[in-house]
Design goal:
Elements lengths: L4 H5 L3 H46 L4 H47 L5 H32 L4 H4 L5 H11 L1
Length: 171
């Protein structure tokens, strides 16, 4: 009994196994991108929480403290935009990696030569992810600009009388 033409057109198990092996590297890459996205989303949540706290404080502060809070919320707003860009670039990279895996299987299933589109998509995925990492570095630099201790706090000295009174209340 001769195999049907349809059976000859379908990929053999060994070919599928080889395609699955080739798809493992992009799948591991997806796992790494997912971990990076988790870090970005966590940072975004913390930025949003801090912005909400600063927003409340802006309404109750005056003078130099008010100006400091306004400057901080402006940087927080910029950080939100930057981390959103990093998330966008990483998600776009993950989509390109998914397309790579799809094309690997489509090429095997339909016996098509898709090496060039796969290489282009994989390169695009790497460029997008590199852009996501670069944007993330920018967000970290913005965060470090905000996080500094003011000189009046660093060099604050309690008056001797206040210190004595505090010690007396403890005893």
């Amino acid at each position: 009994m001769e195999p049907s033409p349809i059976m000859n057109a379908l990929p053999q198990v060994s070919q599928l196994a080889q395609t699955i092996q080739h798809a493992l590297a992009p799948v591991f890459l997806l796992a790494g991108i997912g971990a990076f996205l988790n870090v970005c989303v966590s940072r975004l949540a913390r930025i949003i929480d801090r912005a909400r706290d600063v927003e409340k404080a802006i309404l109750t502060t005056r003078g130099r403290e008010h100006d400091r809070k306004v400057a901080e919320i402006r940087v927080l707003d910029r950080r939100m935009s930057v981390v959103n860009s990093a998330i966008f670039l990483s998600v776009a990279s993950a989509c390109a990696v998914c397309l790579v895996v799809i094309l690997l299987f489509a090429g095997n299933l339909f016996n098509a030569h898709l090496g060039t589109p796969i290489a282009i998509l994989f390169s695009l995925a790497m460029l997008l992810q590199a852009g996501g990492f670069a944007t993330f570095i920018q967000e970290i630099r913005l965060a470090s600009q905000i996080i500094h201790i003011r000189n009046e706090v660093l060099y604050h000295k309690a008056d001797a009388e206040d210190a004595d009174a505090a010690i007396e209340t403890l005893t």
